[in-house]
UniProtKB/TrEMBL annotation:
Alphabetic keyword roster: Membrane, Transferase, Transmembrane, Transmembrane helix
InterPro entries recorded: Nucleotide-diphossugar_trans (IPR029044)
Sequence segments annotated as region (Disordered): 465-495
Signal sequence segment: none
Pfam families: Glyco_tranf_2_3 (PF13641)
Regions of compositional bias (Basic and acidic residues) in chain numbering: 485-495
Annotated TM spans: 43-71, 334-367, 387-412
Protein name per the record: Glycosyltransferase family 2 protein
Tagged with keyword Amino-acid biosynthesis: no
A GO molecular-function descriptor: transferase activity
Transmembrane recorded as keyword: yes
Length: 495
């Protein structure tokens, strides 16, 4: 006689989902899926975790980026005459710096390689070192601003002090640790031939100097992967003419038309960084379009090589994003929809990533307890270990992270390195910092005052070992200025 529906169909020895133990026996209901059904559910969970951690935005904007790339290759470029775009002499470079004596001279030298020396301005924002003196010695017009107002306040004060909007049609905002490549303006200025473009977002890449420590090399390599993935898979698609949804014009090395700066609330109160807010202001006030191309306006930046500084910078960036989203809110339009989707999936992805390590630890402890204990306690521990979806979470995370690393190595290009297996841990840490920053953004506002990370002087870089020197030289050859190109206006306007 058949059993009624929903009654127990017998007993079965179930493997532990974490350690594979087949010790515990429990009754399995007939309505539970068979082995194939459980495999399908596991695969579905892996897929969900993978989508949550990579984000819908990455898939959408990555597709748009591919479409834009194909459109550019099909379009015949229009020839540009020199009179159709700005000249370097019409560009002012403003560097806001705080305690940057180790790197400010190199920043000024890099700036003077792009524009005449009288176009380079430095605002030392309450520095306690020799930032002002070294900037002046390097040939810049420097001003010692006191007290410390924060980067945004220093930029606003510098614009007024040096009367930059009255004297120059374009402004390049440059960080003290940034080094624009020699073709930065040659590739970036043609993007302004479109009169609707009010800003050109610079493309960030990690400086070619290799930190002396393994930990520093791990951090900078991971940061370069972040740059590659976000700029190629997000920003390139967002900058398509039909989209105009670029979420950030990074303040490390980007260009603005000066005639829109008076309509941008640069030093808005309560924000830890200025670049997210300046970008949102461009969209909110419909000032114009933001252009970006990964082959144009490239600048190298010296990323933190110390974990403490890396964490502080990541928290500051995340805090600035959440504060800006809170300040502007979500409005009608493609850009604001994109921001809303990205903010939502960032929270979801951060929660998933932050849960991975505790989930693995709990599953491991439960599996160990099931082997050590006996009786009902062991059965409970075995059931807990079997119920936790530790393996699908881990597989989903590692799959996405591996794909990101493969993409990074293909685009950079970089050879795979054993330390790259630690990238998932850094991504989990980023998620924790992001969630903490979200909570902080809901609390008291920031004043925007800064503390620069530890810088690497030329002397410190020279003390790196011989192996690092070889790697640095190889990277310099791969990422030299020869890779940049001038984007003809026909390519840019067609996308």
């Amino acid at each position: 006689m058949p059993r009624p529906a929903g009654r127990c169909a017998g007993t079965r020895t179930l493997p532990c989902g974490f350690c594979g133990s087949r010790r515990a026996e429990e009754r399995v209901r007939s309505c539970q899926p068979a082995g194939g059904g459980r495999d399908a559910m596991t695969a579905a969970l892996v897929f969900v975790v993978a989508v949550c951690t990579i984000g819908v935005s990455t898939l959408v904007w990555g597709t748009v980026a591919v479409a834009r790339l194909l459109a550019e290759r099909r379009t015949s470029p229009r020839l540009l005459s020199p009179s159709m775009y700005f000249r370097p002499a019409e560009v002012a470079i403003l560097i806001a710096a705080h305690d940057e004596e180790l790197v400010i001279a190199d920043a000024v030298a890099a700036a003077r390689a792009l524009v005449p020396g009288q176009n380079v301005f430095v605002v030392s924002d309450g520095s306690h070192d020799a930032t002002v003196e070294r900037a002046r010695d390097a040939g810049a017009t420097a001003w010692d601003l006191s007290p410390n107002r924060g980067k945004a306040g220093a930029i606003r004060a510098g614009l007024q002090r040096f009367r930059i909007p009255e004297r120059f049609p374009l402004l390049l905002l440059l960080d003290a640790d940034s080094r624009p490549r020699r073709d930065y303006l040659r590739t970036g200025l043609p993007l302004f031939t479109d009169p609707s473009v009010v800003a050109v977002a610079g493309r960030a890449t990690t400086a070619a100097d290799v930190p002396a420590t393994r930990g520093g090399r791990l951090l900078t390599s991971y940061r370069e992967r972040t740059y590659i993935c976000t700029q190629y898979l997000h920003k390139f698609g967002q900058a398509a003419r039909s989209a105009d949804a670029v979420a950030i014009v990074p303040g490390f090395a980007s260009l603005y038309r000066t005639d829109v700066l008076d309509r941008i609330d640069i030093d808005a109160p309560g924000l830890s960084i200025e670049d997210f807010n300046m970008t949102f202001e461009v969209h909110a006030k419909r000032l114009g379009r933001i252009a970006f191309h990964p082959d144009c306006a490239i600048a190298e930046t010296q990323d933190p090589a110390v974990f403490r500084d890396y964490s502080a910078q990541m928290r500051r960036w995340s805090l600035g994003f959440w504060q800006t989203v809170r300040r502007h809110g979500i409005r009608p339009g493609l850009f604001w929809t994109s921001v809303g989707v990205f903010a939502t999936e960032t929270v979801v992805a951060s929660l998933v990533l932050a849960a991975v390590v505790p989930l693995l630890l709990l599953a491991a402890l439960a599996a160990i307890a099931s082997r050590v204990l006996s009786g009902p306690a062991a059965d409970v521990a075995e059931a807990v270990a079997a119920a936790l979806p530790a393996v699908p979470f881990l597989v989903g995370l590692l799959f996405v992270d591996t794909m990101m690393t493969v993409f990074f190595c293909a685009v950079a290009p970089r050879r795979p390195h054993p330390t790259m297996v630690l990238f998932p841990l850094l991504r989990v840490w980023d998620a924790v910092l992001c969630l903490r920053a979200l909570l902080a953004a809901l609390g008291r506002p920031s004043d925007g005052r800064w503390k620069s990370p530890d810088r690497r002087s030329v002397a410190q870089i020279a003390r790196a070992d011989d192996h690092d020197g070889v790697e640095t030289a190889a990277f310099s050859r791969r990422s030299g200025s020869g890779r940049g190109r001038t984007v003809e206006v026909g390519h840019e306007l067609s996308a």
